[in-house]
Amino acid sequence: MTRTEDNSSSPTTRFWGWLLVVAGGMMALLCGGCTLMLWGASIVAALSQRGASSVAILPLILLVPAIVGGLPAAAGGALAWAGWRIVHPRRPPRAPIDETFS
Predict the structure, then answer these.
(1) pLDDT tens digits along 48-93
(2) Taking the model in full, what pTM does it have?
(3) DSSP secondary structure, 16-36, as one string
(4) C-alpha distance from residue 16 to each of 1, 31, 65, 73, 80 (Å)
(5) I want to staple 76 with a disulfide (CB 3.0 to 4.6 A). Which of 26, 28, 30, 58 is the partner?
(6) Are 76 and 22 in contact (CB under 8 A)?
(7) Whole-angstrom distance, CA of residue 95 vs CA of residue 52
(8) Exposed, middle or buried: residue 5 (CB in 10 Å: 0-12, 13-18, 19+)?
């Protein structure tokens, strides 16, 4: 491969890019879905019980799944985005329009 060739055309580079997309997508979907399920169960449990103590502790109950499941979900989203950028790199800008019609 010469220096002028693009790395995205390499099958190995494309494989690793798609691997990052799949792994990151699975992380984001599984961790994010679990976080949403825990949030829903926590809200339903807090609102179904009578008393102010269950509603008062609700922000703490919502914060823990956000940290434990939300951070890996965000990391999975970042991995998927990085893999997508490897597979589909940004192209350089085209020539200005005013040079085209002169």
Answers:
(1) 887 777 778 888 888 998 999 999 999 999 999 999 999 998 887 7
(2) 0.71
(3) HHHHHHHHHHHHHHHHHHHHH
(4) 18, 22, 30, 20, 11
(5) 28
(6) no
(7) 64
(8) exposed
Q: How far is CA 49 from CA 9, 37, 44, 90, in A?
A: 59, 19, 9, 53
**CA neighbor of 89 nearest in space, from 9, 1, 23, 2:** 9
User: Which single residue is written with the structure tokens 């951070």?
Assistant: 71
* Amino acid in position 9: S
The pLDDT of residue 100 is above 70: no
Whose structure tokens read 């956000």? 66
How distant is the alpha carbon of residue 42 from its chain centre?
A: 24
d(CA 73, CA 28) in angstroms, rounded, equals 4
Distance of CA 51 to the CA centre of its chain: 37
